[in-house]
Specification:
One of its GO terms (molecular function) is nucleotidyltransferase activity. Keywords: Magnesium. Pfam families: NTP_transf_3. It comes from Roseomonas indoligenes. The protein has one domain: Spore Coat Polysaccharide Biosynthesis Protein SpsA, Chain A (Alpha-Beta Complex), CATH 3.90.550.10. The protein is about 45% helix and about 20% strand. The strands form three sheets. Strands 5, 6, 7, 8 and 9 form a five-stranded mixed sheet that branches. Strands 1-2 form a two-stranded antiparallel ribbon. It has a two-stranded parallel sheet with strand order 3-4. Helix 3 links the parallel strand 3 and strand 4.
């Protein structure tokens, strides 16, 4: 996507004439529950040159070798709670952020935002997404996470171990637990059971919050996504 647009990083991809990263920053800055904003990206001084005015007040940090390592570095430096999202979340809104912060289950160290298939297709009937198919519903991730407590570092550590085995699917399966994966493959695993299994592996409680916004699950990964997002932004501006 970056190469096709002639930019160095996907975060700088123009979406309706504006770098995607700046759209995400605008949503975060307008969310009442968000204070300091940190951008983690490769060589920020070079990559973000020319955007200094738009990034005024934003803390810049060089990214690590993987998303999990980058998130872990920021969590270690700034502590919890820490809201994490991605630069390709071009339709992010303050309402989405507020909903996650308000409805995150208490007691969980880490909370992920998910949207139901029905919610997403009601807004974007032609979209193609990757579905997590549990016995009690199908969901899509929203690239929005709350690391609510310091123990969330254990979730990020487990994520890093999974990343290290990404070319060894059987090893990843053993790390996640063979029995839950079999139940998932057979369509017998509920979302709650999946979260309990993951929490046991991370040795700290994890949870999800369901988003009532179909757009929360739409990121810009491919040309079709870009067209979908720009069509939505044009409709909102009309």
């Amino acid at each position: 996507m970056a190469a096709a647009a002639g930019v160095s990083h996907k975060a700088l991809l123009p979406v309706a004439g504006r770098p995607m990263l700046l759209r995400v920053l605008a949503a975060l800055r307008a969310a009442p529950g968000v204070g300091r904003v940190v951008v983690s990206i490769e060589e920020p001084g070079r990559v973000l040159a020319g955007l200094e005015t738009a990034l005024d007040g934003v803390v810049l940090r060089p990214s690590a070798t993987s998303p999990a390592r980058s998130a872990a570095a920021v969590l270690e430096e700034f502590g919890a709670p820490l809201l994490v999202t991605t630069a390709d979340h071009a339709l992010l809104t303050p309402d989405m952020v507020e909903h996650l912060l308000r409805t995150a289950p208490p007691g969980a160290s880490a909370v992920a935002a998910l949207a139901r298939r029905e919610t997403i297709l009601a807004e974007f009937p032609d979209t193609r997404r990757t579905w997590l198919r549990f016995r009690d519903g199908s969901f899509s991730g929203c690239n929005l996470f709350l690391l609510a407590r310091p123990e969330a570092s254990q979730v990020l550590a487990f994520w890093q171990r999974l990343e290290a085995q990404r070319k060894r699917p059987l090893t990843m399966a053993r790390m996640l637990g063979i029995r839950p994966l079999i139940r998932y493959a057979l369509g017998r695993l509920t979302l709650r059971q999946g979260l309990d299994a993951l929490g046991a592996r991370c040795r700290t409680p994890v949870a999800v919050t369901e988003m009532p916004f179909g757009a929360a699950a739409v990121d810009v990964d491919k040309p079709d996504d870009l067209a979908l997002v720009e069509a939505r932004l044009r409709a909102e501006a009309a």
